[in-house]
Amino acid sequence: MFWKLQRIQRFEAGEPSWLAMMDGDWERSLKLVDDTGDEGRSRAYPCRRIRIVEQPVTPYLQWEMHVLALRVEVAEQVRVLDAGEVSDLEIDRRLPELVVLGSSVMYEVTYDACGTHSGARRIDDPDVIAACRGELDKLFAAGEDFRAYYEREIVPMPAPRVTTV
Fold it and tell me: Where is the DUF6879 domain (predicted)?
């Protein structure tokens, strides 16, 4: 099983659909997202993703939710948790971004302060991986079905306004 825990709310993506959104062309951005709809259709293993969401939804997160909507259709199980639902787990720091591949390897994905991917820390300890997978199971069970959240919270939103500093 492939797991992904996503906590970051801002990110500098390089996909054409992201770049179209950054240029202020939301319609083109969504069309480009739709054009990638066949990705992941042939996965031979289950994929689960937990997406933590803060309010107000950032332009990045609004864009990413449209990408996730396609992934849900073709290959992934996605659940959404409001950041307030994990606040008891974030006393000292935010939850990390995690990628777990089966029971043998896990990565803590790292980003700099601007949201630029800066690397990953590989974790091979089976006890640590098992403990994290147990926590991911709990978060997934507590999360809201992606489609319900997406239809209620994301679809009605107007096009994001992106400003560059």
Answer: 2-150
